[in-house]
Amino acid sequence: MNDQKKGSGTKKYGRNKEKCAAYKNQQRREKNKLGRVLRSSGRAAAEHYAKLHNLIGYMTKKYGQIDGG
Fold this sequence. Notes:
- The protein is mainly α.
- The chain has a domain at 20-63.
- It is 59% helix and 0% strand.
- The chain has four helices and no strands.
- The longest helix is centred in the middle third of the chain and has 14 residues, at 28-41.
């Protein structure tokens, strides 16, 4: 018989609420997607996405002047 006890490994039992809140408050998902939209669909689509998600200031700071407004 096998008398050794198996370990549980590195199992995560729950989420870290502070990290989840910081992720949401910093709009990290939207900021990361903004860069992907810019690369895949162009500047006009990225500007439209930034306006929808209130990221105009971020886009201007990171990628330069916004055209047309």
